[in-house]
Amino acid sequence: MMKRFISKLFVTSLSVLFVAKLLPGIEVTNVLSLILAALILGIFNAMLRPFMIIITLPFTLLTFGLFIFIINGLLLYLTSFLVGGFEINNFWMAVIASVLISIVSSIINWLARP
After folding, report:
1. What element of type H or E holds 103?
2. Residue 64, Ramachandran bin (φ over 0: left; ψ between -120 and 50: alpha; else beta)
3. Among 88, 68, 63, which residue's Cα sits nearest to residue 78?
4. Of 10, 45, 49, 66, which residue is 20 to 30 A from 38 by alpha carbon distance?
């Protein structure tokens, strides 16, 4: 269980770092901020995201699921407010970054599977 947790944390950290290097509106100043951002993002995705999806279900259905991108961006933007050294310029940059982080994480997980 601990191995899986550390693996997910590592993949999320790598994904956030890659996207931060790719997009000009995201800045990670040090490794501790990167790891803390990945940890808090993971907690938000595990705890808040399901609750937010249920609360916003009418919008999600109305937009054919696209509102989930807004939720993911909001959680990433909230993470940037809580973690010093991890900054995102604006909400829409957070939405774009959250989509890219999901894609990069999926690719890393696909490449790393046995």
Report:
1. helix 91-112
2. left
3. 88
4. 66
